[in-house]
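FORM 7B: Structural annotation worksheet

SECTION A. Query
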Amino acid sequence: MGHACLLVESEGSVILIDPNLRESFREETFRFCPDRIVHLERLPPPDVILLSHRHRDHFDLASLTHFDRKTPIIYPQDPLMTYGLKQLGFVELMPAGDWEQYILGDVSVVTTESCFADASSDYQEHGFLISSPDAVVWNLADTIVTPEIISAVSKVAPDLDVIFYPFQPTRQLEVVTNRTTSFPYADYSQRLRHLNYLKPKTLVPSSSGYRVAGANEWVNHFKFPVSRGQFLADVEAHWPEINVLVMDPGDSIQKENGQFVLLRQGATNGFVETRTDDTAERLFFNPVARIDPIVDPNVNGYNATTVRDQIHETFSTWIDYINSDIERWAVWIEWGLTYRFRIIYANTEESLVVDFSSHQVRLSEAVPDRVDFQMDCAASTLFGLMTGRMHFDHQMAGSIRTFSCMYRTSKYGVHSLAELVPEYSEEVLDAFGLLRRLLNLDGKHPYRVMDWELGRLTKAAAKGK
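SECTION B. Predicted structure
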């Protein structure tokens, strides 16, 4: 159905995975690619919905409003997802751990592990191993697997018929954090190498069917290093025995005479169809392409004075908070770090510098000769983050960009702080990391964002949209 959304039909069950039925998502900065249209009135009602993880290209609240609230939902043990689903009114919630099995009519669903999940936080994600009398399908969604995880799957399902495989080594943050944007050899090598262990009969490249839209379309030339066509050629060169099927929205796979075949635009009832396929043009990898300057289109029409006042008020609150519990910021104080926020408005810009160079943290508009961290951001984006109207994953769209110049000198040369204090993670000594910590001082920022979106959905429903 596009990107990572799949409908699986068996003799006795209809299973919908990661429904995202809208034209755009993530503050309307991402669109599906290939572009597609979903005819909701033709969509078969699912017997169960599977959600792989909380990222909003997979867990879309607006799309979930279209389904019967008695529909069972299997999803990771994630309190934020539980909160959102309960607020929408779903009553049959089934939060799952790794390797849990569910029997749904003639189908078995097993939640598979991801090494990207973080046991120290509430973020979890799953793939789904779906078995029926006719076929065994493994949808990896966005999961990161290892040979050990693949081995565990092979014990549950020795013969894999179809795998939906996240082939794309997406460069999520490199271009907006001033890191290398060259081809990700190691990441792509690992994804190919895993095919030696998987050995599926049929392989479907999956989970990369979207693009950045609007003012930051240039990001697409950095974000998607491998085309589907190139992945297909690489698999055919080394594993010619694998049947690779490249699916677009509206395509279906069926089992005929023991073989899995692709039916173009063969979705049952024609509930989804490809509208335009400009994937090759839109997602062409070109890491020397032009990087456009940040502009603030202010698509939500925020009042400029309101935005500036809110930004300044929030910074003052942050400074007071930091000074009230200065020990939490000991490493920043010890190294006397400075963090410049360059905020771009529609017709002007300003700088706010958070200065940790003394035991009383200060906010200044004077820019020092050198800063340790700099973040350039569109004012409306920063306003949206501060007010809980925008999720932090908006960073991937290019309207927030950072660099680090975090070093100290001695008579022996230049030493990066990552070198000098390796025990501190990027979350502690990182431009994005500090902003995340400040936005989430009370641990409730993700919930504020979800409440804002739920409120918008409620208003839209009241207006009959």
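SECTION C. Observations
The domain at 304-462 is CATH 3.30.1050.10 (Nonspecific Lipid-transfer Protein; Chain A). The CA atoms of residues 345 and 371 lie 21 Å apart.

SECTION D. Sign-off
Analyst initials: ____
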